[in-house]
Design a protein that fits this description.
heterodimer, A: 266 residues, mainly alpha, two-stranded antiparallel sheet, 69% helix, flat, B: 284 residues, alpha/beta, Rossmann fold, 3 domains, four-stranded antiparallel β-sheet, 11 helices, 10 strands, globular
Chain lengths: 266, 284
């Protein structure tokens, strides 16, 4: 159940994508996400699909692993599809009682769902191929210029990386607490909504307590190693672009150009 | 025969790079009233095995039988099973959640669907059994000391009146005094209440002093199973698995190697002390 959430989970493998500079992957993901909203046509989806499939194949991460992230937004997908199908005005396809389904509705629904799926799968490619520490390094360096606007880039990056590393830890913890309460006869599956919500208390209270305890321990551990924020801090492995990264940027530019072209032409 | 574990396998994350065979062809049985130690290196599959004993995890192959009935069979009453096989997790105090200790201990028996009176009676008995006094019943579990929290959490499982109690590293993170307290509670539960106790630990000294039978896990396999003393005779094999024999046994076997004629099948500190005195006396 909880193990289905792949967000923020790293999948170790040997691939070009794993070796890319995190800055490339970050800007790539950003470009990709923006690009998904730049077109309305089948041709646009074709280009995006080709790009996404290529990236997935290159990543050497099993597809089943990526699709697992979708389970978490399954309800959202259904909701989006249903709303769009019934509420989009246009040419009538089927009509009964007060409900009409339009051709446009079907089209918009399919596109929206596809868009959400592409969004999730695309961004999980990034998190699956990048270790959390690499990701934060990338963010910190890539957004370093924001410091001039007095934005604490390092601190934000540090918080993000801690949050990301804690996701699997807390998931595991939740799993353990669920099992421990089940061992005490707790039942999370039967009963009406109110009973089920009440059944969550024995999980949530220990989980919050544990999250605070871990946060406190971590803060003490960081302070006792003299952590004082980003000022003057150096990296053991500073990020440097290589030929591979420039090649990846070129591919991204070509992809963006293709999407814009398709958006204008079709 | 309350529990029969028959050739079970368990694989985590099959088909991914995280794939790990946690249990491989494990078979053994637990009789009523036994006091068993389960020992093994970190990652040897001890905890995974514990989760199988009350049906929280299902084996990928093989079967587990409780009182002769396959717990994987359709319509098996899992809730009742969890009442009969109590499982105390590592750091059980991390699952306390109620406003006061007493209500928290009531959680287990209440889930079994018992009458309120019976629930409270069981909670009272369980708290008494772990040595928590009446004046601590209505304080927040978060205000208890470390050792008390641990004992209250054990009471939470005990209140379900299990026939078999599995304690996973019950002494982890406690000071020597706290360890002794927990272990003597385990002894009491076994000796006076007649509960079958399975103690998971990596402290050979704790196990030597308390359990009668020892199961040794290594890389997901059950490699040794026998009376505690006999198992500890295999010092070389145990050390090859990164496990040690009890300090007392190690000292005796070293002394023998240095020429002092002592027995080497003794495992507790008390026994070793007497044996060394005897050997020294007979020498001079």
């Amino acid at each position: 159940m909880i193990r289905d959430i792949t967000l923020g989970q790293y999948y170790p493998a040997e691939s070009v994508l794993h070796r890319l500079d995190p800055r490339v992957k970050l800007s790539g993901t950003l470009l990709y996400v923006i690009s998904l909203f730049l077109f309305q046509s089948f041709a646009g989806y074709a280009v995006a699909t080709v790009f996404l499939v290529t990236v997935i194949v290159l990543s050497h991460v099993p597809v089943s692993f990526m699709l697992r992230g979708l389970k978490a937004i399954f309800i959202l997908l259904i909701f989006t599809a249903v709303l769009n199908i019934f509420l989009t005005p246009g040419r009538e396809l089927v009509s009964f009682w007060k409900i009409t389904i339009t051709i446009e509705g079907l089209r918009v629904a399919a596109f929206m769902v596809l868009r959400l799926v592409y969004l999730i799968v695309g961004s999980s490619v990034m998190t699956l191929t990048t270790t959390p520490s690499n990701l934060t390094d990338g963010l910190e360096k890539g957004l370093g210029w924001l410091k001039f606007f007095r934005i604490p880039v390092h601190e934000i990056a540090m918080m993000m990386s801690i949050a990301l590393t804690f996701i699997p830890v807390l998931l595991e913890e939740t799993d353990k607490i669920i099992k421990a309460q089940q061992a005490r006869g707790a039942d999370f599956e039967s009963g009406n909504i109110i009973r089920r919500a009440k059944a969550l208390v024995p999980i949530l209270v220990p989980l919050f307590v544990s999250a605070f305890r871990r946060a406190n321990d971590l803060a003490i551990a960081m302070e006792s190693r003299c952590y004082r924020g980003g000022e003057g801090r150096t990296k053991m492995r500073p990020l440097r672009y290589t030929g591979r990264d420039y090649a990846a940027y070129s591919v991204l530019i070509v992809y963006l150009a293709a999407i814009i072209a398709v958006g204008i032409l079709f | 025969m309350p529990i029969l574990v028959n050739h079970i396998d368990h694989i985590y994350n099959p088909g991914t790079v995280f794939e790990k065979k946690a249990l491989s062809d494990v078979s053994f049985s637990i009789e009523d009233g036994e006091y068993i130690g389960l020992v093994g290196h970190t990652g040897s599959g001890k905890s995974t095995l514990a989760l199988h004993l009350n049906g929280l995890m299902k084996p990928d192959s093989g079967g587990i039988y409780f009182d002769g009935v396959d717990i994987a069979s359709e319509g098996y009453d899992m809730k009742a099973l969890r009442g009969k096989v109590g499982l105390v997790f590592q750091y059980p105090e991390h699952q306390l959640f109620e406003e006061d200790v007493f209500t928290d201990v009531c959680f287990g028996p209440k889930n079994l669907g018992l009458e309120r009176q019976e629930v409270e009676l069981r909670a009272y008995e369980a708290l008494k059994a772990v040595g928590i006094e009446d004046d601590r019943f209505y304080v927040s579990p978060f205000d208890l000391s470390g050792g008390e929290k641990r004992r209250a959490a054990i009471a939470g499982v005990l209140a379900m009146k299990p026939k078999v109690l599995v304690l996973d590293e019950p002494c982890a993170g406690l000071d020597p005094h706290g360890r002794e307290e927990i272990l003597s509670i385990a002894d009491d539960l076994h000796d006076s209440l007649g509960i079958t106790v399975v103690l998971i630990s990596h402290s050979m000294d704790d196990l030597a002093e308390h359990v009668d039978r020892l199961l040794v896990m290594h890389n997901g396999q059950l490699v040794m199973d026998g009376p505690t003393r006999e198992v500890f005779m295999n010092r070389k094999e145990l050390e090859a698995m990164g496990l040690a024999v009890p300090e007392a046994a190690a000292v005796l076997s070293d002394l023998k190697g240095m020429g002092l004629p002592v027995r080497t099948d003794l495992i507790t500190v008390e026994e070793a002390k007497n044996e060394i005195i005897r050997a020294l006396r007979s020498r001079f």
